[in-house]
Design brief:
The chain has 226 residues and is of the alpha/beta class. Helices cover 23% and strands 28% of the residues. A 5-stranded mixed sheet has the order 3-2-1-4-5, sandwiched between helices. It is globular, with a radius of gyration of 18 Å. The N and C termini lie far apart (64 Å).
């Protein structure tokens, strides 16, 4: 019996779910236009526990969406997850953000799904998964060009999903590309991945775990006024 709290903060969607043995008990989320994780995350955690009639002591593990994604969002989520694991003395599980997104598409053998998160300009964070949701190509930060993902085009469908799909739609042309920019990472899609990791004891070192930022965070200084 495993009761796991899942936190997803890699994008604008502040999302919290609780599942028991892989069955979701409650989901709390808000995909606001701006990041609201610092205000909403702990409120959602408290409300989710109350709705599930659980207390913190009932949790067996905390799963965190590890990125790539927003630097600020990931930092807030990981800090909260590590704090809970430290205080409750329970394990920390990390879930690749793009892998959980891929689970939102029901694909057939031979088909592929490419979750893409919008980065700067024509850049996206992307990964390629097969029908078993296993990596066909590793996660990358890449500039979208006409030849992007061309090696994965075949007679089968290729689903390109997530916030980066909108910018890609205007560049890539092939009838087997299917675009859906409305897909956002959600804590509900972390559940099965987290349960498998819990059952196989795939835990993170709470003291040293860091989010998968993929790129170094660059703090841009404001230009001085003349």
């Amino acid at each position: 019996m495993a009761t796991i709290l899942h936190l997803e903060t890699a994008t604008t969607n502040c999302s919290v779910s609780i599942a028991k043995d892989g069955e979701m008990l409650v989901l709390k989320e808000n995909n606001a236009a701006n990041y609201s994780h610092s205000e909403q995350l702990h409120v959602f955690i408290k409300e989710a526990l109350e709705e599930a009639s659980l207390s913190f002591s009932d949790l067996d593990a905390v799963a965190i969406s590890k990125g790539p994604g927003s630097y600020t969002g990931l930092r807030i989520g990981v800090s909260s997850a590590k704090g809970l694991c430290f205080s409750l003395d329970i394990p920390l599980i990390s879930v690749p953000t793009l892998q959980s997104m891929a689970h939102q598409v029901d694909i057939k053998p031979g088909e592929l799904v490419i979750p893409v998160l919008d980065a700067r300009r024509m850049e996206v964070y992307s990964c390629v998964y097969n029908a078993s949701y296993k990596e066909v190509r590793e996660t990358r930060a890449e500039i979208i060009e006409e030849a992007s993902f061309s090696e994965f085009v075949s007679d089968s469908k290729v689903y390109i999903i997530g916030s980066g799909a909108e910018k890609i739609r205007g560049v890539l042309e092939h009838p087997n590309f299917i675009f859906n920019e409305s897909v956002v990472p959600s804590a509900k899609d972390m559940i099965q991945i987290a349960l498998q990791k819990y059952q196989s004891n795939e835990f993170e070192d709470v003291a040293y775990f860091e989010p998968y930022y993929l790129k170094d965070f660059v703090l841009q200084q404001k230009k001085k006024k003349n």
